[in-house]
Amino acid sequence: MTDSMDGVSCLVVIGASGGGVETLSELVSTLPATFAAPIVIAQHLSPRRESNLGDILGRRSPLPVRIVTDRESLENGVIYVIPPNRDVVVSDSDVRVHPDGSGPHPSIDVLFSSAAEAFGENLIAVVLSGTGSDGAAGARDVKYAGGTVVIQNPDTAAYSGMPQSLAPSVVDIVANLDRIGELLDSLVEGEFDVPPVSERSQLQSFLDQIREYTGIDFSGYKEPTIQRRLKRRMIATGHQGIPQYIRHVRSDPEERRQLVSSFLIKVTEFFRDPELYAHLGEHVLPELIAESEARGSDLRVWSAGCATGEEAYSLAMTITDLLADNDAAPEVRIFATDLDQDAVAFARRGIYPARTLGNLPETMIKRHFVKVGDDYEVGKHLRAMLVFGEHDLGQRAPFPRIDLIFCRNVLIYFTPVLQRRVLQLFAFSLRIDGYLVLGKSETVDGLAEYFAVDQPRLKSYRRVGDRVLIPASRVHDNAVAPFPQPRSVGPRQAASHSSMGREQARPRTSLGPAEQTLLGLPFGVIVVDRNYDIRYLNSELRRLFGIHSTAVDEDFIHLIHHYDAVAVRTLIDEARSSEQLVSRILEPIGSPVDARRTLEISCVPYLPSENAQDLLLVVTAIDVTEREELRQQRGVAESDVARLVRANEEVLTANQELTNSIVRLRAKNEELLVAVEEIQAATEEVETLNEELQASNEELETLNEEMQATVEELNTTNRDMEARTSEMLAAAAEAESTRQQLRAIIDGVADPLVVVAGDGSTILENAAYTALLADHDGAVLVDASHRPIPDHATPIRRAASGEAFSVRFAFAQMDHEAWFIASGTPGLTNDDETLVTVTFREANGG
Q1: How many angstroms separate the CA atoms of 577 and 585, rounded?
Q2: Which of 26, 228, 752, 801 is an S-S bond match for 769, by CB 3.0 to 4.6 Å?
Q3: What is the structure's pLDDT at 341?
Q4: Residue 382 phi/psi, 5° resolution?
Q5: Is 438 exposed, middle or buried (CB count within 10 Å of its CB: 0-12, 13-18, 19+)?
Q6: Reduced to 3 states, what is the DSSP secondary structure of residue 536?
Q7: Prediction pTM value
Q8: Who contacts 691 (Cβ-Cβ below 8 Å, separation ≥6)?
Q9: What count of other Cβ atoms lies within 10 Å of the Cβ of residue 439?
Q10: CA diameter of the chain
């Protein structure tokens, strides 16, 4: 990257804010006097006083420092400092300042973006200490242009906000301040040196090893791109040659992951090309939606190379707005895939910095996003459309029956051979007359006979021609088997499937950590099917009902002793028919006097899938003997309150664990759905080959035996695939079952209950609490002396302070006062955040 005699060939741009003066002073002091590139510095400075930054840096730097007052030509080995209250724009030969617009100044985003346009892959952008997120959007432009992004280690920065605001997929190097000067010199001096022939041969062998480690084949990527990104990792880790670096990667799995991530391009943004999305929204998608309605099928979209998800969510927003007033709208499924595990995880999370939404209208943000702190989370209605998964276009099978494929700026990084294979995948996937959208620099020249031009300037094509077969992959084992492999069926499971004792074998699944927590709660929990047969039960329920046998798959009603079994069955039947929670008190009968326990049993139905035959019912049993005795005495005992509070805390703990489990299961479910689609594509391919073999059989009877053997093998493969698909669907049903069980238990708590965070927001509330607020809407809270309670002393505000408390208050309304006792109990979440559980119990009048 060294400069030529005719001018500047590379550029370094640096952005800093809070703590930046000291940080910049230390950085420039580590630069060599022979530094062979210009440096432009944008530091947030107060416009109300004169800046001395240039003088401060000049005393520490071995390089000359200039303050840019209007326009300066770029020279190697010169540091350019932007004054306060000015923004800066860089061209390929000079740097210019102009009066500022809005936001912090000078704008680091403006500097980075203009420099990326001028210098492309020859730009190095550095983000140092500072608050806020200025520089995050500009760094994305640098990365997209092929430049290098370096950030100061947030753990050592005086203010970590700016370095941490960059998405991990954008950052090439994270370094401590004392190493950045050395890194910049190495990047400027040797970034794009072509390795000798011997090392290039080693590199190809190394890429084969990377494929064996990760399943990702980079041999089809353009060699200069691989070399540049490899060199950056070598500089970041302090290795001078490819052989030394290869040895380091072999012994360090984390560096292997960093290298693979650096090879992949993961930079995108919402509605990156507005004209293209306007064409999709006005012409392409309405046509595809109408065709899906006519067929009675789903609208299926594939975002291949989705990076961090912005383009996939942009498609979802466009489709959602088109279907807003369509009562006959088809179901929509958007498959969003990428090679990079980190990028897919970021996209699946669906939370983006506010600055990345800067080009979206405010009305669109309100429709499709939810504000979470300083960031924005995509709405659940968008998230439900998308299935994220890891997918290698070079090796994996495609998705079948796709209406629209969106693959922009991915093919440009592939060799012609790999480009042709990917186009074959797309030709197989698309329905006839389906659409393919590529990047502005990409074409279908490698397989033009299967794609007709729709809009040449927008690189939109329609699928034409005959059916094509799935091209062979380099790694055949991974063509239909994604990571991870489906779990095998054990002997006990196999036996249950073959059993003739019931009309339909039930799925056998082991309980995960969340379910085990649920069944370990201090009150009885049992799950039965519509025939009252037991699916799950915990030890507390066994104790309450005296069940000592294995019980699973047995009739619950016939196992009930010392209680009215008819009443229990009636309760379950009422819950099933009414499709809502039903509760009642169950008195003991026929048991010894000293062992009689009064139970409060509740039952709620839920459907783990859309199949009505899968209806299950959750029954909970709580020992309320003491509570019932106290009610008969018309008193409220503090011990009862404490016991219920402890039970509520345990329920909340189980809720948090189940929530975490559901998130993990959802991610796993999406990966399984991606695998199902690939298996379906492979199945259709097998069916196509089978038809061709049958035709050949009629023409060439002499080859009949060989063809029949091939057909049998293919049918066996198809059955194996169907069995694996059933396992995947069972896992998805299990995840939904867990979520429904949790909701049923929380709403089954009788007393009003609310969980409050430190900022006063409500984390969780049950139906009883919602009803309490509705009943006393507009009422004034008063204390025991009938004086209004100030805002900071209300139960919710006291809970926000994280304190334990018990307060007596009333809702004062026009004609009466309703007295309650509110008790707050603090607790810690897994993130060490203090949450306070507040319960409300009715009290005698004031």
Answers
A1: 20
A2: 752
A3: 78
A4: -75, -45
A5: buried
A6: strand
A7: 0.47
A8: none
A9: 16
A10: 103
Q: What is the pLDDT of residues 9-66, one digit of tens each?
A: 889 999 988 777 888 889 999 999 999 899 999 888 766 666 778 888 888 889 999 9
pLDDT of residue 595: 60
- Side by side, the strands of the sheet bearing 123-127 are 65-67, 79-81, 39-43, 11-16, 123-127, 148-152, 173-175
Strand order in the sheet with 86-90: 71-73, 94-99, 86-90
Region of 789 (left: φ > 0; alpha: ψ -120 to 50; beta: rest) is: beta
Q: Which residues contact 216 (CB under 8 A, 6 or more apart)?
A: 210, 260, 339, 392, 394, 395
The values of phi and psi at residue 803, to 5°, are: -95, 155
> Residue 720's pLDDT is what?
84
DSSP character string of 782-827: E-TTSPBPPGGGSHHHHHHTT--EEEEEEEE-SS-EEEEEEEEEEE
What tokens were used for 216?
């990702």
Q: Which CB contacts under 8 angstroms, 24+ apart, belong to 199-205?
A: 199/241, 199/242, 199/243, 202/242, 202/243, 202/246, 203/227, 203/230, 203/242
Q: Which residues of the chain have pLDDT under 50?
A: 1-5, 191-194, 197, 475-514
Q: Are 654 and 839 in contact (CB under 8 A)?
A: no
Q: Rounded CA gap, 398 and 678, in Å?
A: 6
Single-letter residue type at 111: L
In whole angstroms, what is the distance from residue 261 CA to residue 268 CA? 15
- 496 vs 416: CA distance, rounded Å: 51
d(C-alpha 40, C-alpha 790), whole Å: 55
Residue 613 CB neighbour total at 10 angstroms: 9
Where would I find the H helices in 549-634? 565-578, 625-632
Quick one: tokens of 401? 């029956």
Please, what's the b/e burial string for 125-134 (b: 16 or more CB within 10 A of its CB; e: otherwise)? bbbbbbbbbb
> How many residues are listed for the chain in this entry?
846
The dihedral through the CA atoms of 306, 308, 309, 314 has a sign that is: negative
Q: How many CB atoms lie within 10 A of CB 592?
A: 8
Task: Enter the tokens of residue 55.
Answer: 């003088």
Helix and strand numbers, DSSP H then E, in the chain: 26, 31
Closest listed residue to residue 364, CA positions, set 308, 324, 414, 421? 324
For the beta carbon of residue 714, count every other beta carbon within 10 angstroms: 17
CA–CA separation, 330 and 163 (whole Å): 43
Query: In whole angstroms, how far apart are CA 125 and each of 34, 141, 415, 609?
Result: 20, 10, 28, 50
Asked if residue 384 lies in contact with residue 316, where contact means CB atoms within 8 angstroms, the answer is no
Q: Please, which residues have CB within 8 angstroms of residue 568's CB and are 6 or more apart in sequence?
A: 556, 557, 560, 586, 601, 619
Question: What angle, 0 to 180 degrees and rounded to 10, lies between the N-to-C axes of helices 416-429 and 638-699?
Answer: 100
Question: Which three-class secondary structure state does DSSP give residue 750?
Answer: coil
Q: Structure tokens of 674?
A: 């991606």
| Cβ-based neighbours of 792, under 8 Å, separated by 6 or more | none
Phi (first) and psi of residue 380, to 5 degrees: -60, -30
* Number of other residues whose CB lies within 10 A of the CB of residue 629: 12
> Which one, of 543, 506, 505, lies nearest residue 526 by Cα?
543
Catalytic residues: 17, 44, 134
Return the pLDDT at 438. Answer: 92
| End-to-end CA gap in the chain | 82
Beta-sheet pairing, 351-353 with 780-782: unpaired
Look-up of token digits 């249950």 = 496
